[in-house]
Design brief:
Layout lengths: L1 E7 L2 E8 L2 E4 L6 H6 L8 E3 L4 E2 L6 E5 L3 H11 L13 E4 L4 E2 L5 E3 L6 E2 L2 E7 L3 E2 L10 E9 L1 E2 H7 L16 E8 L11 E5 L2 E6 L8 H8 L4 E2 L3 E4 L20 E6 L3 E10 L2
Parallel strand pairs: 6-19, 8-15, 9-21
Antiparallel strand pairs: 1-2, 1-5, 1-15, 2-3, 3-4, 6-7, 10-14, 11-13, 11-19, 12-18, 13-15, 16-17, 16-20, 20-21
Amino acid sequence: MRYVSYASGTGARVGILDGDTVYDAGFDGDMVAFIAAGAPDGERRPVTDAQLLAPLRPRSLRDFLAFEGHLKNAYARLGREIPGEWYEVPAYYKGMPDTVIGPDETIPWPAWSDRLDHELELAAVIGEGGRDIAAADAEDAIFGYTIWNDMSARDVQARELPVGMGPGKAKDWDGSNVLGPCIATPDELDLPNARMQVRVNGEVWGEDRPSSMHHSFADMIAYVSRSQTLYPGEVLGSGTAAGGSGLELDRYLQEGDVVELEIDGIGVLRNPIGRKEA
């Protein structure tokens, strides 16, 4: 199944995407409630001209650094070495769920940054959840997968990272996290071999596959759930795929660019870049 959230006169509703057609899922509640309820079968009806929203407003956002290729490319630009601890610990930072927007929405360009960058990520959406989940059981905790464009203000990030607290304002503004276009259940993906591609104005900037991840989602879930309960609707990001950011190429976005992130089995997340705020 491919589940979506779409705009209705009474707010966001859960839908099922079949080809290009959206069917209302017959559920009175948002996507997080739908996942928590076990994705119940309801009476379906086709929706005409459905406007897709971000597939969910996550309960939480955690972002990892799973792709060694991205780190090698990015750290070479920054004159840094990959720390040995990265190979042992699936470290992460926490994002702001209220900054999330969806497909085809314009990504705002904040006034305080001159260097805006996209990041192509695969994201797992927690379903059943739990605490102290063993890596061997972690796949059972995943409801599905979506695409995450984790936007970055690279000039601000360069000033923040030496402090050692991780990204802060470089990742935080309204519209800085983009999810969509749907949540695809695991049976919809050949996960290791799913092609991940980023295009800017139709030009391919980078391509990778989840098989390149050093840390698996099972590793991430086992690590995060140590002494902490994971709940339905939490989102874990893979971190940027190799070639998935302009930083790696020393190429950055411009006002009016159109960014397309595509992952086989999920679809295309497309967003235009807005004008810089005054």
